[in-house]
Amino acid sequence: CSLPAYAQQVDETSLSAADTITNFSAYKRSLSFAGVLQTRYVASLTRHVDVNGKHYDPAADKGTHNSFLVKRARIMVKANINDHFSANILANFADFSGNPANKVLENAFIKYSLNKHFNVQAGQFRPFMGIEDIMPVDIIRTVDFSNQYYAFGKNGWQSFQVGLSVFGDINAQGNVRYYAGVYNGNNRNESTDDDDTKNLYARIEASPVNDLTVGVNAGTGSLGRSAIGNAYGIDASTRISLSRKWKLLLMGEYKSGTNFI
Amino acid sequence: CSLPAYAQQVDETSLSAADTITNFSAYKRSLSFAGVLQTRYVASLTRHVDVNGKHYDPAADKGTHNSFLVKRARIMVKANINDHFSANILANFADFSGNPANKVLENAFIKYSLNKHFNVQAGQFRPFMGIEDIMPVDIIRTVDFSNQYYAFGKNGWQSFQVGLSVFGDINAQGNVRYYAGVYNGNNRNESTDDDDTKNLYARIEASPVNDLTVGVNAGTGSLGRSAIGNAYGIDASTRISLSRKWKLLLMGEYKSGTNFI
Amino acid sequence: CSLPAYAQQVDETSLSAADTITNFSAYKRSLSFAGVLQTRYVASLTRHVDVNGKHYDPAADKGTHNSFLVKRARIMVKANINDHFSANILANFADFSGNPANKVLENAFIKYSLNKHFNVQAGQFRPFMGIEDIMPVDIIRTVDFSNQYYAFGKNGWQSFQVGLSVFGDINAQGNVRYYAGVYNGNNRNESTDDDDTKNLYARIEASPVNDLTVGVNAGTGSLGRSAIGNAYGIDASTRISLSRKWKLLLMGEYKSGTNFI
Known about the structure:
By secondary structure, chain A is mainly beta.
């Protein structure tokens, strides 16, 4: 009775043929799927304010005060091509609620990881500019992003951008990390950049003690043919254990940037 | 020689550690894929009637009398999160044959099953309003839906809607079933509901003898800012065994509803 | 200790129950995923020529001379339904960089393989018309298609079309192959054909010696209500081994066709 790959006793002391990688290009190849499905019921309890939080003129319009919504219907495919390269495609099918041009496709990037100190990521993804872009897209910590995040997104500073980033740990313990990159800075799914100026950014993040992380960001960029601007921000996150299985996460950010619109 | 999970002999009489579920949130987790690909050749054999069944003026237009078509190219992802929760996303890529706004995404719902008597489903899906919405979307029993189904769909009574439904078996044998729910009633992939009135519906289904099912539906609702209307219907299905591997399925429905358009 | 399907010793000399296929409709059923992610940085080094290779008037426009781009973000699902039937759906999410109508869905076809001499493929796919459509879509041999390919594609001769093809080996060795078919000839994701005339084509391909393939194509067709036209082409490919792991692939094609636009 023999069961290859499960029950064999590996000789740890010698270099047997079975221990040698014969095809490096497919080593650690795998495919994984993830998704986020966010469906909700929204009601406005304020007179003359609709479900989107907007005032309306009751003489001209009746407004919608409650609605069922599909906010996000995301499917993510992550392919580990080998132990160094991976590819990631993320699509949000809830974007078909309006004109899907320049929408739907969120992530489309290839990542190369040399080691924990040096990773390169190229394609369309959220550059690591500010606290809300550090978290993976398939984790939802808050019901919605902050208003400032949407404002920075409209200006091409944040959210999904087409470009290139490098990032990794600075020290051996991994509690000081860097992120830097360059991107078009006119948001996702554009046929080309709208100008020659690229956005440049850098971020330094440190966790001096457990459960506390502080970060500093800075960037320059433009949107369309408007003048060049800049943006910067500082942020802090802390996690407080209330009990063994109950934790409080606090995140704060101060940010300032040129408004191109 | 040992093979965990395959060849072990489980002690059925005692509560061993191996029989205890240690992580309820991932118990019975699985991912499955399904699809429907419907491609066809359509020809009109009637003079001055085109492939869509529409008359045209031969003086003004020449009409198209035959065509290859991709009618449906659906991919469905179903995720069983644990033994109670599942998520379902279905997209129809054949909808790119025209403007895909408010199309493409068909299912996007989360289902909670307490037991066979109580299930809740929330998000975008076809509410169980009438005989043609009871069947899963990945089963095609007829070449096309009935004309009345498309008419009820345009009015927001049927087809994919955003809302919430509860359903289950009424009795222990499971031959009497209920379905009820609430939905926006202005079709799929809308950014919000177009009014405050929601559609309400209920359906009772019974199989008094084998191979016979009868159902009764009723609902109220609206489309846009128009007046509130209602819809009701009765239906019956029967399956007749012609031989051991050859069966005839007959389905009939009478339905009436307010036409908002 | 027993391990079904892995470690059993099959009796090769008798027809045991385990060797008999009990469910032909699911025999050799499988699902596979593939993808192409092509992300790039394009710069124009020529004055007054933008990233798309187009001249612009410097008095009226400033032009974009460099840009990060997501050119292709393709996901392919291939389902082998049994040992004869397979289905293929391919979507390119990079098409959301503009209006996605009549885009995004690339492949949507069902293939029936009787044997290596006879295969039928129906739905939307690239008919085997010319050298650049013979290669599978998930293999990129060149950074881009040739200009003539895009010109033939605009006229409905090549690229993704809705129709039907038959193909296979002519002789037992498989070094002479045929392809023939019929398709709408007005490109992909149309709601119907735009006229009654279908495109017809045939291709003969032969490999007289190893590493050399020659092919001949011919077709007739139309686009819209324009007059009927025709297209033909000859092509040759050769592979020269420079060293054991380094090969040079040369491909050449002469093609002529009616320009309907």
